[in-house]
Amino acid sequence: MQVDFAAKELTVKLVYYGPALSGKTTNLRAIHWLGTSKACGELMTLETQNDRTLFFDMLPITVSSESGIKVRLKLFTVPGQVMHNATRRLVLQATDGVAFIADSQRSEAAANRESFLNLKQNLAENGIDPDRVPIIIQFNKRDMDDIRTDEELEAIARQSREPIYTAVATRGYGVMQTLRGLIRETWSKLEEEHGLHEKFGVSPVRFMQEVESKLKHDPRQQER
Amino acid sequence: MQDDTNAADILMGDVVRLEDVLSRDSVTSVSKSFFTLFGLPVRVISHEGDLLADVHRDRPLCNYLNTSPGGERACAQTVGAVRDLEPDGETIVHPCFTGAVYRIVPLHYQGRPIGRFIIGPYVPAETKRAPASLTAVDPSIDAGAARGHFDRMPRVREDIAEQLSAHLKGVLELLVFSGHRAQLASTMQVASVRENYRELAEKNEALKTSYDELKQLDQLKSTFLATVSHELRTPLTSIIGYTEMLEGGAAGALNEGQSDFLETIRGKADQLLGLISSLLDLGRLEAKNLELLNEAVDPRTLLSDIGSTIVPNANRRNVALEIRVASGVPKIWGDPVRLRQILLNLADNAVKFTDAGGEVELSAEAGELGGGTSSGLGAALFAASRPAVILTVRDTGMGIPEDKLPRIFDAFYQIDAGTTRTHGGAGLGLSIVKQLVNGHDGKIEVTSSPGEGTIFTVTLPAAHDDD
User: Fold this and answer.
1) Where are the domains of chain A?
2) Which residues of A touch B11 (CB under 8 A)?
3) Domain B293-461: CATH superfamily, name plus number
4) B6 and chain A: CB distance < 8 Å anywhere?
5) Fold of the domain built from segment(s) A2-223
6) Any CB–CB contact under 8 A between B237 and chain A?
7) Cβ of A94 and B112 within 8 Å?
8) pTM for the full model?
9) B195-285 and B293-461: same fold?
10) Given CA atoms B297, B301, B302, B303 in this order, what sign does their dihedral have?
11) What average pLDDT does the segment A183-195 reach?
């Protein structure tokens, strides 16, 4: 988190991590499409010709709190392909929260596991304790064949330390719930570590209400 | 709360200065195009107050007013005020005493102000006549002339001016976005390359350390082998010596059973001594401590000596032995004892692995050494460099599977455990042979067809004619 006292701004970094082709960029595209035009800035993508993320995608979201503090949430994706590990580690630097986008297909279970281990390793190499950073997991691609069933995911969720969400990012289902969950977990952690309520007068409940109202479906989205 | 980790985060950096992501040339180019299309002057100013583009044409009205002290002063005040105005979110339309206006439009990027642009002066189309303030700034101003110039000022409807400025704002903010994107991409590229390099350098360092440790271990192993072999050989020599004395009757006459036992003890002790000598050789060879003599050795003598040594064994196993020495074969430049060791080892193996009725052939012919490919790129540089003698040991035995061939010269390597059980040996012979051949600056090659036989070819430097 970066703090600009002069401008009364907090900047929070959120990273969408996960195996190649699990739908990280699609999540950001859907948020950009569904989010209010006032809150969401321009989506910056850095892709190759094959629509594969080369370095990262970035989507800024700005939320103003009642106390006058402006909170800028910067959403990033990492390149999922194994060979881009150095870039992934760089994007992950100083992250405040992570949304791990897993592929629901059974055939991708090993890729999910490998990517999660890679996330833990890269967090550690960046000096971030994987046990302390807020992480949520999204099981994406719920519309595909041969996926883990809802019952299986419910069973997984009961045992999981990380909150579990489901999504079909290509159609926008579940992406906002995931984002709100990520912001809630991250804010709660930042509150615990830095006492944001006391220092800046931003209560977690009020902040999440602000986030809810800023991120709800925008009827003006057609203008985009 | 601002901690050190943030300093390392290259992606959290925002556009701090407009000129960091936009070149003055590109801003001027866009402004010129705007001026050409709509006839409206444009100035672009960064958040820090730097003028990045200024595209305008002197208006006759302004020139005229600047000829009077009051007009010049009023003009300067207006221009200064317009330049210093920084709108906080919304566009400001600032009036000029002439009746014209300036439109000051803020530029934002990711929710932060990064600069502004100014359109004007222009006269809103809705203004029909010049205000009284036009002539009030100086008594010397001629009202008729001033109004004439005023009528020739560019006129734009305010709603159109608003659309035009929104368009220019969109274009400039898009340029900032693209510039920032390019800036971040190049920063990431450099950082990724550096990160990859750092990672590879770390791995290289780890590999080097591990290689050095392995080399040390290998050295320790060689020293250990040499020491242990030496310590084993000393008592063994005594065992053999005393056995020979017993056999010779030094301690009295022996009956038949005792002689048989002593012969067995001698045989096994000799075998053990051979193995220990091999280990010693290997240790010395690996430590590069084995000194080789250099003299001219006649291959004909060498092969016939080997032949006479192995012929009893070959006969016992019903294996035919043939020796061929081509005419004109030069002498070999090397150590006669070690050359014998090389050939004897290969020939012994050949007999050992050939079934009854098979054949073993030892041959020598003239050849060349040191050459690579005889044709193709750089053939002139890779041509054979010196005369050599090619010694071949060919058998019609069981052969060696192709996938095992690359490892047969490794120390202690056995093609399979069954071979060891059937034929004995510690798997040291070929390793020693290869190192001895290398020690002679020669080369050894093997070809084999399982079930048909094996051919070992040893190429050794020839002695000069006068040696």
Assistant:
1) 2-223
2) 13, 56, 58, 74, 76, 90-91, 93
3) Histidine kinase-like ATPase, C-terminal domain (3.30.565.10)
4) yes
5) Rossmann fold (3.40.50)
6) no
7) no
8) 0.70
9) no
10) positive
11) 94
* The pLDDT of residue A224: 41
Does domain B195-285 correspond to CATH entry 1.10.10.10? no
- pLDDT > 70: percent of chain B: 90
Backbone angles phi, psi at A60, to 5 degrees: -90, 140
Question: For residue B7, is pLDDT > 50?
Answer: no
CA angle B359, B446, B331 (to 5 degrees): 80
Nearest residue to B450 (alpha-carbon basis) of B395, B410, B368: B395
Q: What percentage of chain B exceeds 90 in pLDDT? A: 55
Instruction: Compare CB distances from B188 to A11, A55, A60 and report the shortest one's residue.
Output: A55
Q: What interface predicted TM-score (ipTM) does this complex get? A: 0.86
Q: Do A87 and B192 touch (CB under 8 A)?
A: yes
Domain ranges of chain B: 4-156, 195-285, 293-461
Can you tell me the distance from the alpha carbon of A164 to that of B357, in angstroms, rounded to the nearest whole number?
A: 77
Tell me how many degrees the CA angle A176-A179-A183 measures, rounded to the nearest 5: 140
Chain B, nearest residue to A74 by Cα: B12
Cβ pairs bridging A and B (under 8 Å): 73
pLDDT digits (tens, 9 = 90+) for B215-248: 999 888 878 877 888 888 889 999 999 999 999 9
Summarize pLDDT for A93-137 with one digit per residue, the tens.
999 999 999 999 999 999 999 999 999 999 999 999 999 999 999
- Identity of the amino acid at B79: V
Query: Is the domain B4-156 a CATH 2.60.40 member?
Result: no
> In Å, how far is A73's CA from the nearest CA of chain B?
10
A93:B189 CB<8 A: no
Could you tell me which chain A residue has the CA closest to the CA of B182? Answer: A46
By C-alpha distance, the chain B residue nearest A47 is B185
